[in-house]
Amino acid sequence: xxxxxxxxxxxxxxxxxxxxxxxxxxxxxxxxxxxxxxxxxxxxxxxxxxxxxxxxxxxxxxxxxxxxxxxxxxxxxxxxxxxxxxxxxxxxxxxxxxxxxxxxxxxxxxxxxxxxxxxxxxxxxxxxxxxxxxxxxxxxxxxxxxxxxxxxxxxxxxxxxxxxxxxxxxxxxxxxxxxxxxxxxxxxxxxxxxxxxxxxxxxxxxxxxxxxxxxxxxxxxxxxxxxxxxxxxxxxxxxxxxxxxxxxxxxxxxxxxxxxxxxxxxxxxxxxxxxxxxxxxxxxxxxxxxxxxxxxxxxxxxxxxxxxxxxxxxxxxxxxxxxxxxxxxxxxxxxxxxxxxxxxxxxxxxxxxxxxxxxxxxxxxxxxxxxxxxxxxxxxxxxxxxxxxxxxxxxxxxxxxxx
Length: 403
Ligand SMILES: Cc1ncc(COP(=O)(O)O)c(C=O)c1O
Ligand SMILES: N[C@@H](CCOP(=O)(O)O)C(=O)O
Hints:
Catalyzes the gamma-elimination of phosphate from L-phosphohomoserine and the beta-addition of water to produce L-threonine. One of its GO terms (biological process) is L-serine catabolic process. This is Threonine synthase. Residues 1-51 form the Rubredoxin-like domain. This protein is an alpha/beta fold. The protein has 2 domains: 45-101 and 203-379, Rossmann fold (3-Layer(aba) Sandwich), CATH 3.40.50.1100; 102-201, 3-Layer(aba) Sandwich (Rossmann fold), CATH 3.40.50. The chain is 37% helix and 17% strand. It contains 14 helices and 13 strands. Helix 3 links the parallel strand 6 (121-125) and strand 7 (144-150). The chain is globular. The structure holds pyridoxal-5'-phosphate and the ligand N[C@@H](CCOP(=O)(O)O)C(=O)O.
């Protein structure tokens, strides 16, 4: 029903357990796309449920059997009308996933695939979300996990790994270094890879975010979608979700996809801006948005090609804009996002300031992670002194606050 196709040379391969990237083009240029024979997939709109989890998309996923206990997906989409003068703005909030981020969508597929191929151990490199997601969804299974994370991982994400019982390999280095060493070790020890950027099946799990949004919007497709980008897998997956639905005649268009990167981690935005043929521009990352603090994005080629096909672009936002976005998003919508999630919202505001949106547009913003996972960016703003439990003191304080 599906094959694997190299994003650069277009070679087509039959799926095999150890086939991650195109042997001819290598890891960076040779990431693989899962291509389906759409004629063999029999789905109609009424097969899908607005409140279903990602297993409802199994017929369009490259797995033999869905193998996860927790409820992944079925995350809320909130509608705001005339928001910043834009007709309809939808917030797709993935912080309600079992471990609090979009990454659960990919880990669910990694686990299903590891069982299908008969592995007993899965590894990943992660800034923290892929990690906690793999650890959490594997916890009720008999799979062992080895998780490579950089030493600056936010403490809440480390705590998740710890309580879920993962084998944690804390790397004295950054995410890019953790990624390289994890691949080396994983290959040598024949562990299954849950590194989305090289395992094509994981992007397929992530594409369910776009599909779910479409189902929740009664198959109406937004004009423009905002999503943050680090390695570039999530943004590619969102394109793929719309693309599959389009080819299955479930929707009539694919929205423009706008990728948002932090100014201090703008490797994909730079690569995109230099144009074709896309040649990765690597950098040393530096941003408060730890989840998208990536200097050597592994899925950069796919991200650039897909965003171009969608008619979209990449924008960057600085750390101050991301911080402001966390507070504004929380106050306006009730969504507390981690910095990488709020970056997409900061990008939406930037697009407005650049007159990139029309007032009749419908817009969807993917908020990919829960704010409680990384509170560093907001905790410095908390300046509250304790007050004695004395009536007069409390009234005095309330009067002060009311001023
Ligand atoms: C919360 C959050 N948002 C966005 C991203 C960006 O995804 P990608 O690295 O696939 O571009 C990540 C992970 O990387 C993430 O954890
Ligand atoms: N920042 C990401 C990087 C890896 O995630 P993946 O799902 O793209 O493999 C994270 O650690 O969450």
